[in-house]
Amino acid sequence: MPLSFIQRYRMQLGFCLRVTVAALSALTLGRLLGFPMVLWAVLTAVILTQMSVGKSVKATIDYSLGTLGGAIYAGLIAVFVSHLSDAAFAAVLAIAITPLALLAAMSPRFAAAPSTAVIVVLAPTLTHATSLASAADRVLEVALGGSVALAVSLLVFPTRARKLVKDRAADMLELIADILPDLFLGFTQKSDEDAIRALQRSVGAAFSKLDSIRAEARHEQMTLLAAEPDFDPLRHSLLRLRHDLVMIGRAATAPLPEALQGRVGPLLARVANAAVEHLRKCATALRTGGAPPALEKLDEAFDAFAGEIAMLRRDGLLRELSVEAVEYVFALSFALEQWRRDLQDVARRVSEQADRPMRHENNDKS
Questions:
Q1: Which CATH architecture best describes the domain 161-364?
Q2: pLDDT tens across 209-260, in order?
Q3: What is the pTM of this model?
């Protein structure tokens, strides 16, 4: 297998190895412990072995709750409700599944409860065990599979959710840097509004990916294996960056007044270039754990734009424009000033992540 392929798909290959090890470990332990249906332990181990430690923790908690609740409820129904005939057996199955399906619909945490009820009710017809024994076996099988999944996630090429959060945040910053030049072109030439909206949606999708993995990092912190700072401040900074980028995108749907393009257009291009460089360096710092870039070049670009707008006001050139054009210029100035503060805030949040040692990072690089 080429080294470049291994490096590119390192996380995916690690996940494949973890799932395989989890399945074989659950099979071996299940047979050693004499489980009647080791199949369920193996399936549980495979299902609960996730891409990150945090996601495995969350999946194990949710799956265990659903299994325990479904096993207890279905076991009691099967014991206390007679089901000697086929019709009675079907009624017991319906009574066992219906409320648990409603519970699963109301809370995804209990998604495993209906399937557990089916296994508890039907398994005795295959193994000739009692319903309570079937319920107990099911709980033990899930306990074994979940324990194996957690152990393998922690020990076999573990991927920390906190590292994935930083990678997704870096992806979002790099995406914004990629689309920024095209977005700022709208200030000097007619832009495609549909294309701009598509660019904005791509940033929103990147933020959604970040948000989902951030929840996994919280579960990872619950294990006391990653005593790291919360990612909420970084998330809030990226959210503000995205919202103000939407404001800039709306302004870019119409070019600047022709009277201003010669003086303001190059300064906007300078702002865009400085912001692109700043965003890429922040992304690199997040990936490597290094320090964020200095703000001097970014501040100089924004100061030059603000100074030119102030000079246009002093020279009275803005008074020669229509009311709509003046409002457009001031709205753009406000949006860029907000975005400047957003970029500065992102640098501070990146600095917070770099100031603390990245525990367990050696394992992440395996």
A1: Up-down Bundle (1.20)
A2: 887 777 666 666 655 444 555 678 888 989 998 888 888 888 877 788 887 8
A3: 0.65
164 Cα distance to chain centroid: 8
CA distance 284 to 278: 10
| CA–CA distance, 3 with 60 (Å, rounded to integer) | 34
CA distances from 137 to 18, 31, 45 (A): 25, 13, 15
**Of the candidates 92, 150, 109, 115, the residue with the CA atom closest to the CA atom of residue 40:** 115
Contact (Cβ atoms closer than 8 angstroms) between residue 317 and residue 262: no
Angle between helices 10-32 and 38-48 (to 10 degrees): 160
Where in the chain are the domains? 3-155, 161-364
Distance separating alpha carbons of residues 202 and 106, to the nearest angstrom: 30
Rg of the Cα atoms in the chain: 28
Give the HSE-up count for residue 187: Cα atoms under 13 Å, Cβ half-sphere: 26
